[in-house]
Design brief:
The protein is mostly helical. Helix content is 72%, strand content 2%. A two-stranded antiparallel sheet has the order 1-2. α2 runs parallel beside α9, α4 packs across α5 and α4 packs across α6. It is globular and about 50 Å long.
Length: 356
């Protein structure tokens, strides 16, 4: 079995780390790219109704449980004081984001896009750190460049290759809180699209060039380059609504499962609220886990119901399925902001993307 060495770390990474989830994530994107490329060559298209259904299946049924699991697992075996601060910071972040959306929905949309990019980029590089190594990322700025390129694939590439659909859904999302607000600041969208494409292309070439130049021949650069180009192709070829809807369950979540199985056991503290989940009595563990699941579900969908009730146009003036896609995109961004900041960046001891 071969190994590569992580940048800045002494522990070695198995070349086979990740196993089935990692393979599934790669194969799934390849199949989708091939299928939609063949369909476009044959002159076929997928209706927006079908795209919206696929998005909702991917983001609600497939991906939402994983987001809850990441927080749940991170809060296990943590001190009660940490858990209180974590939950408090989470709720504060949610409240501030909701307030921003109602007061300045265009700025809220910009933050929502940034959250999606941060989640895909930062989470992606941390998974790569655990699965294939990052010894070709020799400096802090290069590490952040890798995260920016991976995150940019999630939002910037669809802006460039699917501008009409991206802009249409952005308009609906803003209309949920203030109808017509995006039209006043949209400007020349075509020019901005070209500028975004050129800027992202420059970052992509710089990232790949630096990675190749600083590669130590361990295979980490080749894995990074292949996955980065795979993501760019995926978001360029697959219709944006389907691409985003399936990216998070089939790529982000699958790779985080692979990361979790590849790293060492997490450190633990006693005295927290969830200690009963480590009890010897399986009945207590089962009942406790059920209670946590119910509480999380009630809190999540209770917040969604509150935003739906307060919003002037919950569907943003669109028909049912496109409106639900727009509403869920905004809502999932609200709960993803603390996911990134509180669970990822602020928790330096472990965090949802923990790599020892």
């Amino acid at each position: 079995m071969g190994y590569t060495r992580r940048f800045g770390r002494d522990r070695l990474v198995s070349e086979t780390a990740g196993g089935t989830p990692l393979t599934v994530s790669r194969v799934a994107l390849l199949v989708l790219i091939a299928g939609f490329a063949a369909g476009r060559l044959a002159g076929l298209s997928v209706s927006l109704r079908v795209q919206a259904g696929v998005y909702l299946l991917g983001m609600v049924a497939m991906n939402l449980p994983h987001g809850g699991y990441e927080h749940f697992e991170n809060l296990r075996r943590r001190a009660a004081s940490f858990q209180r601060g974590y939950v408090g910071a989470y709720l504060l972040s949610v409240a501030l984001f909701v307030g921003l959306l109602f007061l300045a929905p265009v700025a809220g949309l910009a933050l929502a896009v940034s959250v999606a990019m941060a989640k895909g980029g930062l989470g992606g590089v941390k998974a790569m750190d655990a699965l294939s190594g990052t010894d070709h990322l020799r400096t802090g700025p290069q590490w952040w460049l890798a995260a920016a390129v991976r995150g940019g694939a999630v939002m910037v590439v669809p802006m460039v290759f699917w501008p009409e659909v991206f802009y249409a859904f952005s308009t609906i999302m803003v209309n949920i809180f203030e109808p017509g607000a995006l039209a006043g600041v949209a400007g020349d969208f075509g020019t901005r699209r070209l500028a975004l494409g050129a800027g992202y292309g420059a970052l992509l070439v710089t990232h790949l060039g630096l990675g190749y130049w600083r590669s130590a021949g361990t295979g980490s650069f080749l894995a990074d380059a292949a996955e980065t180009l795979l993501l760019v192709a995926y978001f360029a070829v697959v219709p944006v609504v389907i691409a985003v809807g399936l990216y998070f369950p089939l790529w982000y979540s699958a790779r985080q499962v692979a990361r979790a199985t590849a790293v060492d056991d997490e450190p633990g503290d006693a005295g927290g609220w969830l200690d009963f989940l480590d009890a010897d009595d399986p009945r207590l563990v089962a009942m406790g886990a059920w209670g946590v699941l119910i509480a999380g579900s009630v809190a999540t969908f209770g917040l969604a119901a509150l935003v739906w009730t307060l919003a002037p146009q919950p569907l943003g003036g669109a028909s049912l399925l496109p409106g639900l896609v727009a509403f869920w995109s905004i809502f999932v961004s609200i709960i993803a902001l603390p996911h990134v900041i509180v669970g990822g960046l602020a928790d330096r001891e472990r965090g949802i993307w923990y790599v020892p």
